[in-house]
Design goal:
By secondary structure, the chain is of the alpha+beta class. Helices cover about 15% and strands about 40% of the residues.
Length: about 190
């Protein structure tokens, strides 16, 4: 891949070498064409807004020994009332894998081993003001006891046969299950 860069300010004006080195400015990248050329945007730093900044949340598709998938029935946004993978928000300086293992334990009481990355979902729910980037991992259970340790967030946690899944699945659950089916490896 041939990458070419040019530096420009917020309004498209060239950036002087002094302002490019300014520690109170941040560099952002934006793809400008299909050939993977990027423009650096040199913009003043500001705290991220809570409503217009995408967040990262990891999902975990857990299969038991019978080949059933574990799903949780969500009480809150995004997609309240839908069945979802276990998972949650990545904390500052936490890896995706560590988040997946931690969130699974917090939401189900289960210890898991991650097998592989299944997919990454652009989880966009404009009606709820939600924008998540959501990698989903395939995992197997290594220990623990299935429970619902977060009843304030989750109505119930249960296994489903892959041939008898509920209709109301979250976007991330649908994408992870589709990736599992396409891949054919469990």
């Amino acid at each position: 891949m041939n990458l070419s860069f040019r530096v420009q300010g917020c309004a498209g004006a060239p950036v002087s070498p002094a302002s490019a080195r300014d520690p109170f400015r941040q560099v952002k990248f934006r793809q400008v064409d299909a050939d993977a050329r990027f423009v650096w945007h040199n913009a003043p730093m500001r705290a991220p807004a809570t409503t217009d900044t995408p967040r990262v949340g990891v999902g975990v598709l857990i299969l038991n020994d019978a080949g059933e998938v574990l799903l949780t029935l969500r009480k809150g946004a995004p997609e309240a009332g839908c069945w979802s993978l276990t998972g949650g928000k990545v904390e500052f300086m936490e890896t995706l894998e560590a988040t997946a293992v931690r969130e699974t334990w917090e939401e189900t009481g289960l210890h898991v081993e991650l097998i592989r990355l299944l997919c990454v979902t652009d989880h966009l729910v404009p009606a709820e003001g939600q924008h998540w980037v959501a990698p989903a991992y395939l995992a197997r259970i290594t220990g623990g006891q299935l429970s619902n340790p977060e009843p304030h967030k989750t109505e119930t946690v249960r296994f489903f046969s892959l041939s008898a899944l509920p209709d109301a699945l979250t976007i991330t659950a649908k994408n992870a299950l589709d990736a599992l089916r396409r891949d054919g490896r469990a």
